[in-house]
Design brief:
With about 300 residues, the chain is mostly helical. The protein contains eleven helices and two strands. The chain has a two-stranded antiparallel ribbon with strand order 1-2. It is elongated and about 105 Å long.
């Protein structure tokens, strides 16, 4: 260790016993222009304070991250602290570096270790609720604290407490293959999930089709009813309407294509009758009917 970065003696009553004395080094860094010499001196200061960063990282072990990863994150926070520290403001480097390093570690937990995305405000509520619940659990007799009691201890509203409680289950998501509590036969969450119901799609299709069916000409509606509701073949429909089977085939194809294109192209128009029923079977054309309907 160079003369510019000396370890403080215990008599200095510093909060970190192994805190080095880097005041002279920071004064020299502030006087140097950007360049290799300033960079090398910053690296020397980082190495001198690395034991403190590693000690702060150990405070967060056993929380789902390896100690090696935490130490790397703490080292990154230390590098940022050395780069940003301004001795002219009068505060010691330790008082500036400790919250910077701890903040970097907490930011890592907030941004990278949650199983689902949770806003920062909700994460803070979760931490306050957890601390209040833990404190109250030691003082209450054989029961967990209520929402109201947690709210009073954490100085939060009941709604904020409930939101924080919900966030407690978002840190580490439960596997769908996990066995449900209270079951001994291996019954898992996967077995509680439903399958796709094709009937719902048919309901949506029918509701989208109803208003367009009402807007069709009479003969097209008549042919569609006889084919899809009456179950008649094209030949039977041709006999019923007095037209050729080929004409029936063309009308069916043209009408179905037009209906499909309309449904895919734009939302359906508002229904004229909310309680619409399937079209009634049309009566046979009378002798006085429009002759064009018999072609």
């Amino acid at each position: 260790m160079s003369a510019r970065t000396q370890t403080r003696r215990p008599s200095a009553r510093h909060p970190h016993d192994d805190a080095p004395d880097t005041d002279a080094a920071f004064a020299e860094i502030a006087a140097l222009p950007e360049g290799p010499e300033r960079t090398a001196l910053r690296q020397e200061v980082v190495r001198a304070w690395m034991p403190m960063a590693e000690r702060l990282a150990r405070q967060f072990r056993n929380r789902g991250e390896s100690l090696e990863d935490l130490q790397q994150i703490a080292a990154l926070g230390l590098v940022k602290a050395v780069a940003r520290y301004d001795p002219a403001r009068g505060n010691t480097f330790a008082s500036f570096a400790v919250p910077t390093v701890v903040g970097e570690i907490k930011r890592h937990f907030r941004d990278h270790t949650w199983g689902t995305h949770v806003p920062r405000r909700v994460q803070e509520l979760r931490n306050r609720v957890r601390v209040a619940e833990r404190e109250l659990s030691h003082s209450l007799d054989q029961r967990g604290p209520s929402v109201r009691e947690i709210a009073e201890r954490a100085q939060l509203s009941d709604q904020e407490v409930r939101l924080g409680m919900e966030a407690m289950n978002s840190y580490a998501p439960l596997s769908l293959d996990a066995e449900l509590p209270g079951t001994d036969d291996g019954y898992s969450l996967t077995e509680t999930l439903g399958d796709l119901e094709p009937g719902y799609d048919r309901v949506v299709d029918r509701e989208a089709l109803k208003p367009r069916l009402r807007s069709l000409p009479y003969r097209e509606r008549q042919i569609l009813y006889l084919r899809f509701f009456g179950g008649l073949s094209q030949n039977r429909i041709a006999e019923e309407l007095g037209i050729s089977q080929m004409h029936v085939s063309r009308l069916l194809s043209r009408t179905c294509t037009a209906l499909r294109d309309q449904i895919l192209a734009e939302p359906p128009p508002p229904a004229a009758n909310a309680a619409a029923k399937p079209p009634a079977k049309p009566s046979a054309p009378s002798a006085t009917a429009d002759p064009s309907t018999r072609r």
